[in-house]
Specification:
Length: 392
């Protein structure tokens, strides 16, 4: 009897080892496929196709984040050839005055990755280019780049409050929003029992759209035991024992045949496309009301800028591959509807920049939201044109 049990146990071990090797081989194969696809996409992209711009891909991959109260996360300090993030988690702004004095106007700029300047060096971000314009005649404006990848207006509000709590009181606060307010709502609005892209990332990272130094391709996890994190946590539990996990998945799949397992397109409840823009506008408007109260209490001016996206630009031939994507199309549709609703509110201090590139035929968009340094320059000039009359 003992011999039979031993033989059975041996067979189970052999089967498990084979299944683990199959799982790990699949992971390696998919990972290589993914990396190859990314490289091919970058070669076809008009911006990254220029070898001089490939450095920004490396810089972007070097970005990481750490926990930060109320906003969920904040960019970690980093020094590369193009990006300098201080120990205070603030990116360097070029063209600021060398000496700060009592006559210097302190300008804080809040936004997501577009404001941060994810595909630009320090001197070509929107804050740096704005500082260059404002300080062209006199070095009296100190611009600070508080942009954080993935931040929406709610996170920016909490970020501002954290600065006020430290006694850092600005003279002027600028918010550059839109894309992340829409996208963050879209990621959390989906049909029950349906697949949502980046679901594992969201549930594991406190709503962190930016990865916490995890695998770049979050949709291709390494589910085998050949992973250092799983080994260090006793193989990650039963879900990584394939002789248990695979039958469980098979039964679950048979019981839930209606569940989509294709992560290519975001799925929403039937009424979401109508109700979602209203929800986005409501949340954004409430955040702006709180900012208004803070401005009154702390005596600073504030300006609200609603950013353009590829949906509001005359598309160049180089940008066609960006818009021919189902996710981009659905996001663009919701973004346009959201923008239309906000316009009707006639919100104080709100400035619509969605048409900033409407007459620009040359390519500016690297993806559906992020723009080239040349695009940053156009935005900085439009922001300056709105600001300067208030400063005189």
């Amino acid at each position: 009897m003992k011999k039979k049990i031993f033989i059975l146990f041996t067979y189970i071990i052999y089967v498990e080892i084979i299944l683990q090797l199959i799982s790990f081989t699949r992971y390696v194969y998919l990972k290589r496929q993914f990396n190859t696809r990314i490289l091919e996409n970058n070669k076809q992209n008009w911006f990254f196709g220029n070898s001089a711009n490939s450095r920004y891909i490396t810089d972007h991959n070097n970005l990481s984040a750490e926990f930060f109260p109320y906003t969920g996360y904040i960019l970690s300090p980093l020094t590369t050839e193009n990006i300098h993030i201080s120990q205070n988690h603030i990116r360097t702004t070029s063209h600021n005055p060398l000496n700060y004095n009592g006559n210097t106007t302190n300008i804080y700029m809040f936004g997501g990755s577009t404001l941060f300047g994810v595909y630009a060096n320090d001197s070509h971000t929107i804050p740096s280019l704005l500082a260059s314009i404002l300080n062209n005649e006199s070095d009296s404006y100190m611009v600070s780049n508080y942009g954080q990848i993935g931040y929406n207006s709610g996170q920016e509000l909490h970020y501002l409050i954290s600065e006020l709590q430290k006694g850092n009181i600005p003279d002027i606060v600028l918010f550059y929003d839109g894309a992340n307010d829409v996208v963050s709502k879209m990621y959390y609005t989906y049909e029950p029992n349906d697949y949502i892209i980046f679901e594992d990332q969201i549930t594991s990272n406190l709503g962190n759209i930016l990865r916490f130094g995890r695998d770049i391709n979050l949709t291709i996890p390494n589910n085998s035991i050949f992973d250092i994190q799983k080994i260090s946590t006793l193989f990650g539990g039963l879900k990584n024992i394939k002789i248990v996990d695979y039958p469980y998945k098979l039964v679950s799949e048979l019981q839930n045949q209606n569940i989509s397992n294709t992560p290519a397109i975001l799925h929403y409840a039937n009424n979401s496309l109508e109700s979602l823009p209203q929800d986005i506008v409501h949340t954004y408007a409430v955040n702006m009301q709180v900012i208004q109260k803070l401005a009154e209490a702390y005596k600073f001016q504030y300006f609200l800028f609603w950013q353009p996206t590829v949906a509001t630009k005359k598309i160049s031939p180089e940008e066609h591959t960006i818009v021919n994507n189902d996710n981009v199309k659905s996001q663009s549709d919701i973004y346009i509807k959201t923008t239309s609703l906000i316009r009707k509110m006639n919100m104080n201090h709100w400035h619509d920049l969605t048409n900033a590139f409407s007459e620009v035929s040359k390519p500016l968009y690297i993806d559906s939201v992020h723009i080239s340094p040349e695009g940053n320059k156009i935005i900085a000039q439009q922001v300056a044109d709105i600001l300067i009359p208030y400063m005189k």
